[in-house]
Design brief:
two-stranded antiparallel sheet; alpha+beta; disordered C terminus; Beta-Lactamase; transcription; six-stranded antiparallel sheet; DNA-binding; elongated; Tscrpt_reg_IclR_C; 238 residues
Length: 238
């Protein structure tokens, strides 16, 4: 009943009590549980609104479309940089590689499709966390190998980089893929040995990685089903 009531837009606790006909303590208990599981959240005025969890569940159904659009872009990115490229999505407390294009020869950072990696380290984790709401940002930073200052830099530049955060000797550069609402739904990355990417991989590769992420963003937005259930999400916080 609470979710149904919020389809029309944000509502205060008193409004939810009035619409549902439930006792105030009951509504408060149910709403608090829904906030805990991210089915609801609170806006800047303290009103209840639909949360990100529904979008995440809907996004899972749209993975095939995102992955199919990503394939050719990751191949071009690999060929342009000479490094392995990947597409990551967040699933709970992990990030999952949902598409990749491996470097065909030589030393490479192999991340097979389906690999689950930590949200506490790596440039893709930085990108997937940087634009989250304050509460999830604080939670995500606990135990992370990057700092709030690093994430502020990611938001300012529009890309992230890492040197040995996830694995010693490995560098990476990542940029966000956004849905029609502007919400970050994935991260495009390249990764490889620091010896090739250098100790300033962003300076060398950020432009081409960001361009690939923008291209995938445009394809997602052009697709009739490309919103992945995100069209009603609030704009991303910048």
């Amino acid at each position: 009943m609470i979710m149904d009531a919020l389809e029309a837009g944000p509502a205060t606790l008193a409004q939810l009590v009035e619409v549902t006909g439930l006792a105030r303590p009951t509504v408060h208990r149910l709403a608090s549980a829904l906030v805990h599981h991210r089915f609801l959240t609170r806006d800047v005025r303290g009103r209840y609104v639909i949360g990100s969890r529904l979008a995440e569940l809907a996004s899972a159904a749209g993975d095939d479309r995102l992955v199919s659009a990503a394939g050719p872009i990751l191949l071009k990115l690999r060929d342009a940089t000479g490094e392995s490229s990947q597409l990551f999505r967040r699933q709970g407390e992990a990030r999952v590689c949902v598409a990749s294009a491996e470097r065909p020869i030589g030393l490479r950072d192999s991340i097979p499709v389906g690999t689950q990696l930590s949200m506490k380290a790596g440039s893709a984790a930085q990108v997937l966390l940087a634009w989250e709401d304050h509460e999830r940002l604080v939670d995500g930073l606990q135990g992370a190998r990057f700092t709030p200052t690093v994430l502020a830099g990611v938001r300012r530049r529009g890309w992230g980089e890492s040197l040995g955060e996830r694995e010693a000797g490995v560098a990476s550069v990542s940029a966000p893929v956004r849905g029609p609402s502007g919400r970050v739904i994935a991260a495009v990355s390249i990764s490889g040995p620091i010896e090739r990417l250098t100790r300033q991989p962003g300076r060398k590769f950020a432009g081409v990685v960001v361009a690939a992420a923008h291209q995938l963003t445009e394809l997602v937005r052009m697709s009739p089903d490309g919103d992945h259930g995100l069209k009603d999400e609030p704009p991303a916080k910048r």
